Amino acid sequence: MNENAGKYCGLDRYKARKKIVEDLEQLGYIAGVKDHTSSAGTCSRCDTVIEPRISNQWFVSMQGLAAPAIAAVRNGRIRFVPKKWEKIYFNWMENIRDWCISRQLWWGHRIPVWYCMECNEMIVAELTPRRCKCGSKNLVQDNDVLDTWFSSCLWPFATMGWPQKTDDLAYFFPTSVLITAHDIIFFWVARMIMMSLYFMKEVPFREVFINPLVNDVFGQKMSKSRGNVIDPLTIIEKNGTDALRLTLASLTTPGKNLLLGEEKIEGSRNFVNKLWNASKFVISSLEKAEAAEGFEDIKITELDFNLWDRWILSKFARVLKTVERYIEKYGMSFACRALTGFFWNDYCDWYIESAKLRLYNKEACAAGTDSVSAGNTDTVSGSVLQVKKNKTAAAFVLWYILERYLRLLHPFMPFVTEKIWQNLPHRGESIMVSEYPVLKDGLPEKIDTTAEKKIDLIFKIISQIRKIRSELKINPALKIKACIKPADEKANTTIKENELYILNLARLESLSFSGPADSMGYIKSAVENTGIYMYLQGIVDVDLETKRISSEILKLGTEKDKSLKKIENPQFVSRAPKEIINKEKSKLEKAYAEIKILQEQLELVKSLKKQ
Predict the structure, then answer these.
(1) Cα gap 336→252, rounded to integer Å
(2) Three-state DSSP state, 297
């Protein structure tokens, strides 16, 4: 005990407590003694109970520093994203207290104060003083160190060479945006603003983006005691760094905490694999086609783009605009969704498949830029020049989209994109320092709504045929006959120009352009008033399929009734954990959706039987 303890000064704390109780009993002030449970902080190393103790500390007066920092946010010089965090900032700043900056630790920036051991003079100085004003050189520096946040709040300018006026300081201060978490808005963000305004007379950044905290899939904070901590090193070893980065970015939504589970990381890992495999195909195709030489310097006017080229370039132009818009608004999850959706669906599932026909199918190569007709065999044999032009255009667009897409994706997935980019024809030493792609005049990519509408019709036709084949479990390798009755002349022209693509991508044996003379054996469908007739006589066993589908509907109906009974039971809803209830609701929704699909399949099969 210290001098403030009076007659108990010098006693051990536990002995002092015992002595105080004895003295109070002698004075008759204690009515009784009993045990109470209370919270007590302990040392993490030795478990010793920590006691509050009065001591001399260094403080910074904050009122004068806080006022300009409050004004900087109120007048819009600094903007919080999401805006709701401004309220937290103002609450702290308007109720600010003086800041204790001294710490009794072994490591840190030492307090710049020295004491003269001769005259007890206290010296505050930027540099180590040589002697006291009394002439003594017997000086001892204060043992305390600065609070780590005091050092950290100088970061925006101290790391750039301050107090010297360096080129880095002039260029990088103030910066555009600070990305941080809400739990250190006061500890770090507010203090950086105050110190920058005091020392530099300028705000340190224009925007503060508050990113979400990472919780588990149930929204609970990760902790060792709960056993729900996901070790990033384990994830990286299993799935790769880029898969983890993409997952975190794709789950980042302003104002909401991030719910992380391993199944979400697996989805990103699958995308990384898709990127690898698609890139391998493109690189291999360029080598086989011997078409990539000089792509970096090729003139766009020398290329003859067909409908599919113009379509994918138009879709890429839209992705460029979308990603730029979302990144500006910190909508990282939406930017990721646009990036992955474009690559997986548009580029891989459709454009690469169409390009394969032009690179390896003689009929497709020889056909005109917007005419890919299966019956155009006379033109095929003589059009060597057209073959080369068509191959070159397809190879160029494959390369061009992939190379620029990798640059667009690079901030989210830096390692895989760099590796692939180095194996493509490119300019520059590294993708990291290459120009980030944006939509501008003079480039091949531009929005082409006409091309998009035409290809959209082709997609719908192919997708509808694929859907029916899948629902009726027709062998993917088996080619079938089909008829298409276009809605009008414009649709007729578009479909005929893309006949070969429809034949190959829908796995058709033949395709005619009028309704069948005899509907016997055909299943009819339609998209955008264009009739689709698929000849399935002898391919689908009507009785067997009817029995199979009816059995599946009955089985799903039983499962649906069980889930519905639980959901409608008040006791289940009130007692079961939330995640169990949500799981049951998901099962019910899934059962309804699957039953609907099976009922549609049953109608298709029955339509064959009626004939």
Answers:
(1) 10
(2) helix
Contact 387, 366 (CB under 8 A): yes
Here the tokens at position 436 are 């980030």
Closest to 142 (Cα-Cα) out of 114, 101, 170:
114
Pairing of strands 145-146, 102-103: antiparallel
Q: What is the pLDDT of residues 146-200, one digit of tens each?
A: 999 999 999 999 999 999 999 999 999 999 999 998 889 999 999 999 999 999 9
Handedness of CA 62, 174, 331, 406 (dihedral sign): negative
- Determine the CATH number of domain 59-216: 3.40.50.620
Question: What's the whole-model pTM score?
Answer: 0.76
Assign residue 368 a region (left: φ > 0; alpha: ψ between -120 and 50; beta: otherwise).
beta
Q: Average pLDDT of the chain?
A: 87
Q: What is the rounded CA–CA span in Å between residue 539 and residue 550? A: 19
Whether the bond between 82 and the residue before it is cis, its omega within 30 degrees of 0, is yes
> Helix (H, G, I), strand (E, B), or coil: what is residue 202?
coil
Superfamily, domain 258-447: Isoleucyl-tRNA Synthetase; Domain 1 (1.10.730.10)
Map tokens 């104002």 to a residue. 255
Contacts (Cβ under 8 Å, ≥6 apart) of 80: 73, 86, 89, 207, 208, 210
What residue spans define the domains of the chain?
Answer: 1-54, 59-216, 258-447, 474-535, 542-610
Tell me what pLDDT residue 302 has. 67
Phi, psi of 23, rounded to the nearest 5 degrees:
-65, -40
Q: Which residues contact 61 (CB under 8 A, 6 or more apart)?
A: 98
pLDDT < 50: residue spans in the chain:
368-369, 371-382
Q: Position of tokens 């090729």? A: 298
374, HSE (Cβ side, Cα atoms, 13 Å): 15
pLDDT given at position 53? 78
Q: DSSP class of residue 573?
A: H
Torsion angle of alpha carbons 508, 511, 517, 522, nearest 10°? 20
Which amino acid is located at 275 in the chain?
A: L
**Number of H-type helices and E-type strands within the chain:** 23, 16
Class of the CATH-defined domain 542-610 = mainly alpha
Classify 36 in phi/psi space as left (phi over 0), alpha (psi -120 to 50) or beta. Answer: beta
Please state the φ and ψ torsions of residue 522, each to the nearest 5 degrees. -105, 145
- For 577-592, write each residue's pLDDT tens digit: 888 888 889 888 988 8
Token pair listed for 205: 């950044």
Q: Alpha helix (H) ranges present in 127-240? A: 148-152, 155-158, 167-172, 191-199, 232-239
Residue type at 579? E
Report the alpha-carbon distance of residue 194 to residue 190 in Å, rounded: 6
- DSSP letter string over 348-406? IIIIIHHHHHHHH-HHHHHSBTTB--TT-HHHHHH-HHHHHHHHHHHHHHHHHHHHHHH
353-360 vs 262-289: helix axis angle to the nearest 10? Answer: 20
Residue 71 is predicted with a pLDDT of: 97
Same CATH topology for 258-447 and 542-610: the answer is: no
Cα separation of 336 and 267, whole Å?
Answer: 13
CB atoms within 10 A of CB 199: 14
Q: How far apart are CA 435 and CA 437, in angstroms?
A: 6
State the Cα–Cα distance between residues 372 and 386, nearest whole angstrom.
Answer: 12
